[in-house]
Design goal:
single chain, about 260 residues, alpha/beta, Rossmann fold, DNA polymerase, domain 1, 2 domains, 7-stranded mixed sheet, about 10% strand, globular, binds xylulose-1,5-bisphosphate, binds magnesium ion
Length: about 260
């Protein structure tokens, strides 16, 4: 059985709970700036999250919720420019410290780096969003923490397609059996699993708590801290302390054996 060599982190929902109070608000601010009467409420946004990628999500919304909207001559350009406005609003929000890292993330990143594990990001989000998050929450840039940031449009197909995880492992010279993925959503879990990663740990959010994670190595509500351990919601362990490197090594062994 191959030892654990690398942790591949999802961003939105995993490093930070960014969707409801971050991305969703940034989308609405961009719509308002562009004079669009679109308003993505909490419940509607939960439906739209089935589609990964902000640009793809806007197109899905137009097709399924605003069929009457007169399409501009160059729809892809319209969506790309509107999404750039959204990304600007999102970066401004994070710069003001709007979204903190989830419990245990800062602790685990430091412990994993200290233990010599290779760290990478595999995310659907726009790369600038990760920089804004890390700058505002850790005061560092992504390059200081992760050996590789695989983000956004670098691959043709976003999660749940496996492309972003395959891309990341290819560039790091990693085989799936040396990796453990940390995710928050069904789309992310399926993407990592589809890339051959058998050890996947899920920290759910309010948006993803009810999704199907059958087969995931462990499902918890948070990575936990010594004063607030995680609550196990599924997977191969019944209880667990704050997620640390020894726990991840155990999850990797369990995933390899049962994944
Ligand atoms: C989550 C996503 C992203 C964000 C919005 O990414 O699907 O699209 O919702 O970010 P992940 P963008 O969970 O893989 O980190 O608008 O930049 O796409
Ligand atoms: Mg996510």
């Amino acid at each position: 059985m191959e030892d654990l060599q690398a942790l591949l982190f999802d961003v939105d929902g995993t490093l930070a709970d960014t969707e409801r109070d971050g991305h969703r608000v940034a989308f609405n601010r961009a719509f308002s700036e562009w004079g669009l009467d679109w308003d993505w409420g909490v419940a509607l946004y939960g439906q739209l999250l089935a589609v990964t990628g902000g640009k793809e999500r806007i197109l899905y919304y137009l097709e399924h919720f605003r069929p009457e909207f007169p399409h501009p001559d160059d729809l892809p350009r319209f969506v790309a420019e509107l999404h750039k406005a959204k990304t600007r609003h999102y970066a401004e929000m994070l710069g003001e410290g709007a979204i903190p890292l989830r419990p245990g993330v800062k602790r685990l990143l430091a412990e994993a780096k200290e233990a010599g594990l290779r760290l990478a990001v595999a995310t659907t989000t726009t790369p600038a969003n990760l920089s804004a998050l890390l700058d505002s929450s850790l005061g560092i840039d992504a390059r200081g923490t992760f050996q590789l940031v695989a983000a956004g449009d670098v691959v043709p197909r976003k999660k749940p397609a496996p492309d972003i995880y395959v891309w990341a492992m290819d560039r790091m010279g990693l085989s799936p059996d040396r990796c453990l993925a940390l995710e928050d959503s069904y789309n992310g879990w399926r993407s990592a699993r589809g890339a051959g990663i058998r050890s996947v740990m899920v920290t759910v959010t309010d948006y993803t708590r009810a999704e199907d994670f059958t087969g995931a190595t462990l499902v918890v509500d948070t990575l936990g801290e010594p004063t607030a351990p995680p609550r196990v919601l599924g997977g191969l362990l019944d209880e667990v302390g704050p997620i640390d490197v020894p726990t991840l090594r155990e999850l990797h062994r369990l995933g390899a054996a049962h994944g």
